Amino acid sequence: MIGDRAYSGEKNIQFADEHDFLLISRLLPITANGSHNLGDKWHYNKDACMMVCPHGVMAYRKAKQNCGNQSKVMTYYMDTNICRTCPLREGCYRPGAKSKTYSVIIRPPEHSSQLKLEETEYFQQRVKKRYMIEQKNSELKNKHGLARSWSNNLAGVRLQGIITIFEANIRRLVKLINEKNGKKD
């Protein structure tokens, strides 16, 4: 199944695994790379299990937190007394702030497996075909009126989709028949 980045959520990846099919959908950049506003200047001290700032000061506390979209982050807390006098505080510490934190996304196993899948040659070839799907969606919405619903219920929207796709296919068939017979539109 091919989808855009909106389909690369944890539940969709789990569903694909459970039903034994591949989900060709890139992960959102924030999920794949994390959100490090200071780049790779921060580093992880594995002995203390804490993050260390670019100036070499270690966090004094950490806490696991849930974000709104079900992803989890590990938040590391820094001593603001040290941050106030740090020579590297520009762009890192906001004057007057009561706390300084640094958060790292905790990637679930599903996202790790999806990242490995993204590196495969099969994934790279299949994801290149995504633009064709988007072209057809754009045609259905812009040329055939699927951008706006005729109805306010699901059955009506489903019927509109069926009719619109049928119309697009009939037009394509007529165009192919005319091309085969040497006629112009």
From TrEMBL:
Q: Where is the Transposase DDE domain?
A: 52-174
Could you read off the lineage of the organism from its UniProt record?
Answer: Bacteria, Bacillati, Bacillota, Bacilli, Lactobacillales
Q: One Pfam family, short name please?
A: DDE_Tnp_1_6
Output this protein's name. Transposase DDE domain-containing protein
Query: Out of the domains of life, which is the source?
Result: Bacteria
